[in-house]
Amino acid sequence: MEKAADTRQRIIDAVLRIIGAEGIAAVSNRRIAKEAQVSLGSVTYHFTTQHELLRESLLHFVAQETQHFTELAENCARADGLDIAGAAEMVETVAGGTAFDSRHIAPFELYIQAGRDERLRAAAAECFAAYDSLARGILQRLGLPDPERLAGAVVALVFGQQLRRLATGSPAEDLVDTLLLLTGTAAGGTGCDAAGRPPSESRSC
After folding, report:
1. Which residues contact 133 (CB under 8 A, 6 or more apart)?
2. Is the separation of the CB atoms in 102 and 21 below 8 Å?
3. For the chain, give me the number of helices (H) and strands (E)?
4. Which of 32, 98, 100, 164 is the most buried (most CB within 10 A)?
């Protein structure tokens, strides 16, 4: 017999797929039950309102993503140490390896919905706080000044570049060059990395 936690997870995964494929307007209890292959009663048992469904789906996605990024950063630091160029390359690897399937499109839809629905804003704020915390930890490890202030800018940059990539098909390498410019300037340079190299040279080494 399937555990309640497994059923709940199947429902959340189904919600993310539906939102990413067709938008929030396509989310209904019947559609979720069909997509998740659970009974209609299971959907209403685990989530009493659609707002709760959207909120929990967004929080779950971000929790998984931040855990994944944190593990990558920790593995990189243990292996070779973490410098600005290495951090940027790590972001490129993650961004370039992220297929914009329905699951990864869904959070953009949910953040936009939070602009329309105040009930989702607390969840959205919690999600961005998690991303900020992750960025701040990496920036501190890099030894950059004022990581608290810079973290929000880095997160905004990554989101903006990913949205641009989603909309236009632009390559993930664009994100790396922009990150190197931002972090190099923050380190007191002129758009170079910690070793004083411009982005193009940093990425070719």
Report:
1. 66, 151
2. yes
3. 10, 0
4. 32
Which residues touch 160 (CB under 8 Å, ≥6 apart)?
none
How far apart (Å, rounded) are the C-alpha atoms in residues 132 and 69? 12
Residue 73 has pLDDT above 80, yes or no: no
pTM over 0.70: yes
Distance (Å, rounded) from C-alpha 110 to C-alpha 128? 13
* Model pLDDT for residues 85-116, shown as the tens digit of each residue: 777 666 666 665 566 677 788 999 999 999 99
Other residues' Cβ atoms within 10 Å of the Cβ of residue 64? 11
Q: Are 31 and 18 spatial neighbours (Cβ–Cβ below 8 Å)?
A: yes
d(CA 97, CA 66): 16
